[in-house]
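Lab meeting, item 3. Inverse folding demo.
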């Protein structure tokens, strides 16, 4: 399941691989559980979290689920799911907190954008939360702009929705 695309992160001895992975694998489920626990702590309010991602939504024809491996150890993930012929949504972006600020999330995001282009969509949307300043900075720095709340997030007062045209 791992590809050959390797980047150096941190010191020159660390290698980062971001590859497509099965969302139902133990690796993926472990990272998703870490993400869910972090979001549940950050947003304890009823209805403030949106965890749903079905395996068929990240199938080859509809999207992707990616895992970042640092020196062979899974440290982050992200998903892309097609919403319609023109639009895909980024979901389940996560990097373990001790490794943030090292370019891993940006690499996952860049790979998801590449997958979106291969799917032929011309717009990517996402939802994050107002309490996630690092995520807001990451997405803003990658060219995403705030948009009105959409879909499942319309009634979510803590949500921030963003989009990027490809």
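The presenter then showed the designed sequence:
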């Amino acid at each position: 399941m791992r590809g050959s695309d390797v980047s150096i992160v941190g010191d020159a001895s660390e290698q980062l691989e971001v590859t497509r992975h099965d969302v139902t694998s133990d690796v993926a489920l472990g990272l998703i559980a870490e993400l869910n626990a972090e979001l549940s702590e950050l947003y304890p309010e009823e209805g403030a979290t949106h965890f749903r991602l079905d395996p068929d939504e990240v199938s080859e024809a509809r999207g992707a689920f990616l895992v970042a491996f640092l020196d062979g150890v899974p440290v982050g993930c992200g998903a892309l799911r097609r919403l319609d012929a023109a639009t895909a949504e980024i979901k389940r972006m996560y990097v373990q907190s001790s490794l943030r600020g090292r370019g891993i999330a940006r690499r996952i995001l860049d790979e998801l954008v590449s997958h979106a282009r291969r799917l032929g969509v011309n717009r990517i949307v996402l939802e994050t939360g107002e309490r996630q300043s690092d995520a807001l900075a990451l997405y803003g720095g990658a060219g995403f702009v705030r948009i009105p709340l959409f879909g499942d997030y319309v009634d979510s007062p803590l949500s921030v929705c963003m989009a990027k045209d490809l």
